[in-house]
Amino acid sequence: MKPTEELIVITKTYDLILWSCNHTSRFPRNHRFVLGERMERNLYDLLETLLEAKYRREREALLAAANLKLEILRFQVRLAKDLQCLKVDSYAFASRQINEIGRLVGGWIRAKKDQP
Question: Which domains are present in the chain?
Fold first, then answer.
């Protein structure tokens, strides 16, 4: 993967964190401090994992961990929508962003496998 593509996945993750902070702070109190906080923490962990992968030669395990974090995040966002913490439009936006980040991570994994 080209260095600029690595930055795209990191930038998109960063942007999703900003979006999430603005939305989880508006969750109803009974969900803000559990679901909202977990979503944000998961996003922070994802960003840290991607940054670490950027600087490591052996990044397969880190990218697999990033994929797992994305899958957990998909369910958390879906749960937030089902609990009516997120509006349908917000859910759709977050889902698109998560899927895009997932595609970029998948591309990074494939590119790493193709290297000798």
Answer: 3-114 (1.20.1440.60)
